[in-house]
Structures are given as C-alpha cells and as structure tokens.
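Protocol step 4 of 6: record predicted structures for both targets in the notebook before any analysis. Target 1:
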Amino acid sequence: MRKLIVLFLFFTNVVLFGQTNINNNQSPKYAFQKGEWLQYRMSYSNFLNAGYATLKIKNSKKNNKAAFHILGDGKTSGLVGLFFKVKDNYQTYIYKESLKPYRFIRKINEGGYTKNKEILFNYNTNKALVKDFKHNTEKSFSIDNDIQDMLSALYYLRNQDLGSLEINEEIELKLFFDQETYKFKLRFLGKEVLKTKFGAINSLKFRPIVQSGRVFKEEESVTIWVSDDKNKVPLKIKATLAVGSLRADLDGFKGLAHPFNIIFNN
C-alpha cells in the first residue's frame, strides 16, 4: 500500500509528457505561477480512499537568478491511514529561465520505510551530487545537460507546446532519480472530454510504456489525462496494479495562471 503515494507523484511528474526544446532567446510564458495549488484525491480499487497529494509553487532565487520552489506532499488517510501511514515530501528548485532543476529534496516515511536525500545539479560539470542523510553519504554522478528530476519534469513539460503531437506518437523523457538516469516512453492517445467533480474538461490523453512485473499488471497499464489548455493541469491518473488499481483525481485547485476551461458544471 505504501506505493500508492509514490506512484501518484512518480507518474504525475515523470511520464506525463515527452521531451521538447525550450527557446531560451524568448521570454517564457509559463503554464503556472507562484501561488498555484493543486490537490488530488487518491483511491484504491475505485472505492477505498487512500490519501491525498498536493502540489504548490513559491518563488525563490539562486545566485541572483529567479527560480521557482515547488513542493509536493502526499499522505494516506481514512482506513488506509489507520493501518499504513505514509508521509512523503518532495521539493524541487528550478531556474525560471530554463526550467531546469538545481536542487531536489526527497523525504519519505512509508510505514517505517524512510529516505532522506538531496540532489544538487551542476550543469557546468554535468554532475549530480546525491546526499543521503539517512546513511550519511555523498556521491557524484554524471548527468545530461537536459536532465530533470521527478518533480521538476512536470513543470518543465507543462510549459511545452503539445499541439503538434499526433495520435500514437511516442516521445521520451530523461529523468535522474535516486542514482540513475532513466528513459521513459510515452504514447499520445488523443483528446477526450473528461468528466470531473468540477464539470467536463477538454483533456489530452497519454499512456506511458511501463515495465510489467512486480508493480504493474501489464506493460501499458497507466493512463493519464491533462487539461487541454494553457495550464496543462493533470486531471486524472488511472493505473492497473498487480493487485487492485490506483486512481488519482483532481480534488481542488487555486492560483492557476490561465483560465480553466470547464465546459459545464456537474
């Protein structure tokens, strides 16, 4: 059960979109802004309330460069929380100019399973310094210049133009997680009008190609919907697991940078 919160944060922020290029010669028009707050309700097997996850944005600065400080929190609740407590905290700091991360924090406690790590990204040397506070270790790893962490990936890719994607087109994302660089493939499935608690919303539908086995029931067992507007807000994630299924639905929002195009109220 401890994988529920981790899977939500992982798939929201890792396999949501494929990688495109940003033009640093132009002033970026962000899909998000300081003060944005998103909350997701997670359910297990479509009926059991498993917990909540939130994402929020603050302003920051690094070496006199403007930056965003993004915080992601997840915790179990209800019956799941009584038997298995999860409290996860993820943070990333990204430069506003390039939307690349320079610092990533991961503090988790999942039923007694804990991690406390910090990653510092250096693009001059193309190295990532991983600090493991639980084991009191530091180690440097080689990275690509266009790398993202599992939380910064969402905000970097939310800011990209997805209008040129064709149905069944596959795109890739490179991500540094723990001590390795991973490549993920993602397939664009098309557009869909998605019913939410706020009303019907035009959405873009994606399916990551994941590895089947211990966690996922099949290779293609995860589906993701995001709003088809300038915000590109994740609306829903549905995953078929080896045992049961996981679903995350947008439950609350505020501070969006652009109008949220709800077609009608439920």
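Target 2:
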Amino acid sequence: MEWTIQELAARAGITSRTLRHYDRVGLLAPSRVGENGYRFYDATAVARLQRILLMRGLGMGLPAIAEVLAEEVEAGDGLRAHIAALEAERDRIERQIRSVRHTLEALQAGAEPRMDVMLAGFNDHYKDEVVSRWGERAFQVSNDWWHGKTLDQQRAWKRAAEDLVAAWVAAVQAGAAPTSERAQSLAARHVQWLSQIPGTPTAEGERECSIEMVKGLGDMYVDDPRFAGMYDDAAGARFVRDALQAYARTRM
C-alpha cells in the first residue's frame, strides 16, 4: 500500500511542504516518484517518518535526527529505543497527574498538601536508604503505589501505621520482653504491614531477602535518630529492633 504526499501529510498532521523539505535535506525520500511527478510513500517510509516525528517531539533538531538515523544499523533497534523513551515519558506524566490530583484532593478536603509526610509522599524522605538497601526498583514501585492512593486511602494507611507504632510503645511501657508473645505478635503484625507495600522483599515473597530487610529495618530504627523519636525514645527503638530481629531469626 502506498500513500500520496497529500495523503501522508494529512494523516501525519504536517504539510506537503514539510515532506518535501525532509526530502531535500536527506531525511525522508519518497518510496517512488510517478511519471507524473507525484510522490508516493510505502510502509517503510511511513515508519521512518514516524521516527522523525517522534524525535521532533522530543525537541531534537533535524541535523541531530539525521545523525541518529544515519548511525542506525537496524530500524527495529531505533523503534525499541523510542518505545522505551515514550514509556518513560508516559510514566513521568502519570506521576505528575497523580501528584496534581493528590494536591487537588487535599485542597478540596481542606488539608494543607505540604503539612506532613503523608501528603509529601510515602518514602520520599527515605529514598537514599531504600535505594541503598533494596534498590531503585523497590523505591520506585512503592513510591508509585503510594502516590496512586487517594487522599482517604493515604490517611487510612497513616492511621494504621500510627496504630502499629502506638502498640509498640505500649508494649515497651508495659515492660514486655522482645521475645515475649506480645512483642512477637507485634513483630508479625509489622512484617505483615511491610508485605502490603509493593516492591519490598516481603511483598515479593523473597524469604531470604525479607529476613535481611526486617533485620536491616531493626538496625535502622536504632541507628537513625528520626526513628528513636517515633518509638518514644532510644530504648523503644532498641526494643522494636530486638523483637523484629528475634522474629526474623525464628519465625520467618
């Protein structure tokens, strides 16, 4: 099947003059020229035009596009690269949409979007720790999961997390031992809470990695002063660490 220059221009949303210019600068020649001088374009030419328009959409100039096309050995490689670039752009736009939607919902609910971690994002403040311990994918998947929640869902999750912390603090204040049934029940609840977060080893069902994650979190609760305050004081953080690590050793 072939298209005339007018048909191709109309379908591509450009002008015939643009197609002629692409021909003059060596970017896109017609597949054939009829005896009457009409230009015709086949599927291969249309695929090349698609690539040109995609690169133009990314802000590339014609000389740079010409270089890319000249260096390609196989057209499929270029198309695969463009698919990857478009998917990355799609993901970026989807994240922006979720962020703006979240802000709108917060404002409609009478909340200040920047007032706490809940509205700033799930683990943005701990990105470096998450990436260094469990990889970029763990951060991205869990972060996307969090930003995909509605404001009410985020509030419900935050309440559940606060309830878990309060239960830990109550166990410490009651004088429970880290290996007691009360503490181990809380540790099981803590691990179950972690398993709800996509991208984490506990959510993926990776036993060995999950054990290391739980132990690592226990260490982080003690080593990072931000968590000591969460569990009332340094002694509380050590209690949570010891309970989680005992659970990881014996029950996971």
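Step 5 preliminary note on target 2. The beta strands are 3-4, 32-33, 39-41. Residues 113-123 have pLDDT under 50 and may be disordered.
Proceed to step 6 after PI sign-off.
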